[in-house]
Design brief:
The chain has two domains: about 80 residues, Endonuclease Iii, domain 2 (Orthogonal Bundle), CATH 1.10.1670; about 100 residues, Orthogonal Bundle (Endonuclease III, domain 1). Helix content is about 55%, strand content about 0%. It has eleven helices and no strands. Helix 1 packs across helix 11, helix 5 crosses helix 6 and helix 9 crosses helix 11. The relative contact order is 0.13.
């Protein structure tokens, strides 16, 4: 990719990171970040926020979740969807944290990924937002945006996308890529029907099914 195109992409992604940071603030406490990331799986930001607020209004430590009745835990996190599965994973996670880590969330990526319901993305969210590790959690928006812009190949998987983006951006910018691409993906580069007609990156985008016709007045 030409330097000019990459610089334009970098500038745009960082701008959208700044927009997102005005709306959301990810708590730095590792336990909150971990459980919040589990709650965020397969749901929308607003649903995650509701569930997290419900849960953390009554608990602040994994030991408190272990003592909580299963039905109450399910009820508190229900807004996040798939709440029964998430409740089981959260309880098991808390048991491991208490029994094996003294109630603390491990920093090691491999240790994180051994926790129930924790995969690459959730582990990287904890690494980035709790421990400040410069990495790129790859959710659906990061996946879609990076492929449409031609930063990675169409068949690239999680680890290839993550490492490619980390090598493509300056180290100080790496912590902002996930946030910026998520916001850009939610506002402009929508997964189902991107708003290419309002995209500042349309000329450098490699996506071959661009949606260049703005909606008629009165339609979204």
């Amino acid at each position: 990719m030409q330097t000019g195109s990459l610089n334009k992409i970098r500038k745009t992604i960082l701008e959208y990171d700044a927009i997102r940071n005005k709306k959301y603030h990810v708590a730095g406490d590792a336990f909150h970040v971990l459980i919040g990331a589990v709650l965020s799986q397969r749901t929308r930001d607003e649903n995650t926020d509701k569930a997290a607020k419900n849960l953390f209004s009554v608990v602040s430590h994994p030991g408190e979740i272990i003592k909580m009745r299963a039905k109450r835990l399910e009820r508190l996190i229900k807004p996040s969807g798939f709440y029964r599965t998430k409740a089981k994973n959260i309880r098991k996670i808390c048991e491991i944290l208490v029994n094996d880590f003294g109630g603390n969330v491990p920093k090691d990526r491999e240790a994180l990924m051994k926790l129930p319901g924790v995969g690459f993305k959730t582990a990287d969210i904890v690494s980035l937002y709790a421990y400040g590790v410069p990495t790129v959690p790859v959710d659906v928006h990061v996946d879609v945006v990076s492929k449409r812009l031609g930063l990675v190949g169409e068949n690239a998987k999680y680890e290839e996308i993550r490492t490619t983006l980390e090598n493509m951006f300056d180290e100080k910018e790496i912590p902002r890529i996930n946030s910026g691409m998520v916001e850009f993906g939610q506002r402009v580069c929508l997964t189902a029907r991107p708003k290419c007609y309002m995209c500042s990156l349309v000329r450098v985008c490699k996506y071959d099914r661009k949606n260049l016709a703005p909606p008629k007045r009165g339609k979204s």
